[in-house]
């Protein structure tokens, strides 16, 4: 298996970001990720997909779109559209129609920042997802780095602190989003979790103080989606793009906060009577199932079944659990960083039927 670190959900000057696609590529090269997916608002920007190289390093840049109904106030129901290959913003008025159009086009759809609260101190509105009647989407953005920022800045003074010390922002996905994900999984259908930076590199000013909130490179070192492929990337953009999106569609990925320590190397598998399953896969409970996780460093590991923690391992880099019970199993791992226990890894589930 081959691991690709992807930072997704970001914006350029084509919508409300401040950088160019080349600026993003340079920042990604500096941050050490393998791929980025740019998703400007309501515009599918053509001509920038490909590999960007610098000396002996290269990154893959892909382009999707973040679609929402611009006529609605506030602008709820933002949808990340990946791999559709055509402009779909004209369908934004109806979230279900939009999702259907993405699916018909062979693309992936993720509900963006399901919980994105208002921030009165900065006059930011609540732009959470609110149409939960929709079906047939690929998954949800479990951890949105910019949405989490909105939860920790009740005053402008807090905002100024985090502007200069952004490493203190991230703690974990917004708890309500995790609860919603578990609720969706309990309904018996796979819902793929991804993590997005929502990077804009916005210049904010408070009197004489100006600061970029937050630079692309910083964002790319924080919340990422690690995608697991059967084969290494070939260097041919069309084949590699297809492989990335196919793995995301299957849930062969995990959400990671890479700033405290790299999460490269995390694996979560299940061995059944006849075969082995990976994140996003399902297998029968008959005959017993052995769940295993391996981490790149010691952490607090929590095994969850149907949204509830059923076992915890302290300061461990591995876990094993044997079960005959059907359920939705997933892993959360936590590490101490800057004085607090923070979310580090959130696996996609293995479905034991």
Task: Describe the protein's architecture and organization.
The structure is a single chain. The protein folds into two domains: 2-257, Metal-dependent hydrolases (TIM Barrel); 267-352, Immunoglobulin-like (Sandwich). The protein contains seven helices and 20 strands. The protein has helices at 21-31, 95-104, 145-150, 156-164, 175-186, 216-220, 237-250; strands at residues 2-10, 35-41, 50-54, 57-67, 79-82, 108-111, 139-144, 192-199, 202-206, 209-213, 223-229, 253-257, 267-271, 276-278, 282-283, 289-305, 308-323, 327-337, 340-347, 350-352. The longest helix is centred in the last third of the chain and has 14 residues, at 237-250. It is globular, with a radius of gyration of 20 Å.
Write the layout of secondary structure elements.
Blueprint: E1 2-10, H1 21-31, E2 35-41, E3 50-54, E4 57-67, E5 79-82, H2 95-104, E6 108-111, E7 139-144, H3 145-150, H4 156-164, H5 175-186, E8 192-199, E9 202-206, E10 209-213, H6 216-220, E11 223-229, H7 237-250, E12 253-257, E13 267-271, E14 276-278, E15 282-283, E16 289-305, E17 308-323, E18 327-337, E19 340-347, E20 350-352
Parallel strand pairs: 1-2, 1-8, 2-4, 6-7, 7-8, 15-20
Antiparallel strand pairs: 1-11, 3-4, 4-5, 5-6, 9-10, 11-12, 12-19, 13-14, 13-16, 16-17, 16-18, 18-19, 18-20
Core attributes:
alpha+beta; TIM Barrel; Immunoglobulin-like; 20 strands; 353 residues; 19% helix; globular; two-stranded antiparallel sheet
Number of strands: 20
What number of domains? 2
Assembly state: single chain
Helix content: 10-25%
Give the structural class.
alpha+beta
Strand order within the widest beta sheet: 1-2-4-5-6-7-8
Q: Give the number of helices.
A: 7
**CATH homology superfamily of the largest domain:** Metal-dependent hydrolases
The outline comes out as: globular
Q: Which whole number gives the mean pLDDT?
A: 95
Cα end-to-end separation: 25 Å
Uncertain regions spanning at least 5 consecutive residues: none
Might you state the CATH topology name of the largest domain? Answer: TIM Barrel
Describe the sheet with the most strands.
7 strands, mixed, barrel
Alpha carbon gyration radius: 20 Å
- SSE pattern: EHEEEEHEEHHHEEEHEHEEEEEEEEE
The proportion of strand residues reads 35-45%
Tell me the CATH architecture of the largest domain.
Answer: Alpha-Beta Barrel
Provide the CATH top-level class of the largest domain: Alpha Beta
